[in-house]
Amino acid sequence: MTTLLSAAALAAAIREGRLTPLALAERCAERIAALEPEIGAFAALDLDRMRREAANEGPRLAGALLAGLPVGIKDIIDTADFPTRRGSPIYADHQPASDATAVRMVRRAGGLVAGKTETTEFAFMHPARTRNPHSAHHTPGGSSAGSAAAVAAGMLPLALGTQTGGSVIRPASFCGVTGFKPSFKLIPVNGIKVFSWSLDTIGLFAAGVRDAAFAMGALTGRDFALPDSSGTPRIAVVDAIATEEASPAAHEALAHAARLLARAGADVRPLALPEAVHAGNAAHGTMQEYEATLALADEWDRHRTLLSETLYTFLDAARAVTPEQYDEARRVARRARHALADAFADVDAIVTFSAPGEAPEGLHSTGIASFNRLWTLMGAPCVNVPGLTGATGLPLGIQIVGRFGRDRVALTVAAMLEDALAAG
Predict the structure, then answer these.
(1) What span, in angstroms and rounded, lies between the C-alpha atoms of 11 and 3?
(2) Strand 178-181 vs strand 158-163: parallel, antiparallel, or unpaired?
(3) Spatial separation of the C-alpha atoms in residues 309 and 298, rounded to whole Å
(4) What is the tens place of the pLDDT at every residue in 118-128?
(5) Residue ranges of the Amidase domain (predicted)?
């Protein structure tokens, strides 16, 4: 498998004069040219533009935090220099007039937009054309398929994605890279095609946990520097959410991760989540359905014949959700968040499944979000930690969940697990 591109290491090399933005752009362009026909990670590319920007703005970029790193942008996020097709023929010719806020954050931090990465239709479930870099016959996950695959294939060091259910953590697990879904609204969603305004969260993909922390610091201006020592974090093992859907390999991977964390010095204990938290799973579905019918009202009213059967069927059924049911789901969600905050009083992070198992074979499905929906609803920071494989040799990630607003703590625990997995 291709060596992944470490964003933190590459940026340091550029700042220290051991590498130039143009040389890195050329390296990424060569890799994209070699693998893109097979993987299909990009909805739009302009490698010549990336090279020109790297050449013309090299000194300025080298002094910036991202130092000219090429970044992929999921194709539901608006870009002024690229079309934003949103995975739908409805927007085949759509050219935004401005960048989304997250894209401006990338550019202000000194990142170069390499291209738009493939997304499922409106970031829902109808698969994109992207293939898993580890096996062309297995799904890369969704909806941020192109972003996860581009980083996993070593084509880019960083890529932005979004998560409404499990669309950062699941493809990161399937493709064997770090996926980070930050606390809700930490990265503004202005300029994305919304599916559910109470859930949609912009996240990112990187080679490793420290690369994700480095990128988050560069984008947000916050202190995401991870400590040299993790100390003795209190980590709760949660395996009771849809536990029957986790494969035997996933159960063994979670148990192995817990053992490694304990051996590394963490205080690891089981945690039974309050019933109020479990109730959030059903609330997620109700809220997503109701909000999607409004977020995609124009597409339904004027272009429904251009929707996939998957999305058409979903929206048609979702129209039955009443405002009263939606309002009750919001109340359930609020109670669940309060209950989870109470549960976090005695722990620093949760370790749990990222996905039911390895990437499913076939390209007709992107997998299920059984182990992601609840945490998205909670607005909690989530990290997929790569490093394990399942029975067939495909990647199998472990998820670290943190308390809302404690993103650096979640990343610190994730780095502890990453180091423990590397040490064996």
Answers:
(1) 17
(2) unpaired
(3) 17
(4) 999 999 999 99
(5) 24-408
Q: Which residues lie closer than 8 Å to 66 by C-beta, 6 or more apart?
A: 7, 11, 106, 109, 110, 111, 158, 215, 218
| DSSP E strand stretches across 89-200 | 112-117, 158-163, 178-181
Q: Is the pLDDT of residue 2 over 90?
A: no
C-beta separation of 366 from 311 below 8 A: no
pTM of the entire structure? 0.98
The predicted model gives 317-333 an average pLDDT of: 98
Measure CA 118 to chain center: 13
pLDDT tens, position by position, 57-95 = 999 999 999 999 999 999 999 999 999 999 999 999 999
- The predicted structure's pLDDT at residue 228: 87
Q: What is the pLDDT of residues 186-209, one digit of tens each?
A: 999 999 999 999 999 999 999 999
Q: Which amino acid, residue 329?
A: A
Structural domains present in the chain: 7-220 (3.90.1300.10)
Task: Specify the DSSP element, H or E, that contains 15.
Answer: helix 7-15
Give the closest residue to 193 by CA, choosing from 96, 317, 283. Answer: 96
CB 139 within 8 Å of CB 366: yes
Question: For residue 189, what are the contacts with CB-CB under 8 A and spacing of at least 6?
Answer: 100, 101, 102, 162, 197, 200, 201, 202
Radius of gyration of the chain (CA): 20
Residue 1 has pLDDT above 70, yes or no: no
How is 295-326 classified by DSSP, letter by letter?
A: HTHHHHHHHGGGS-HHHHHHHHHHTT--HHHH
Close Cβ partners of 313 (under 8 Å, ≥ 6 residues apart): none
The HSE-up count of residue 21 (CA atoms within 13 Å, CB side) is 29
- Rounded distance between C-alpha atoms, residue 148 and residue 156, angstroms: 10
CA distance 206 to 6: 7
Cβ–Cβ contacts within 10 Å for residue 310, how many?
16
* Helix, coil or strand: residue 359: coil
Residue with the larger pLDDT of the pair 241 and 89:
89
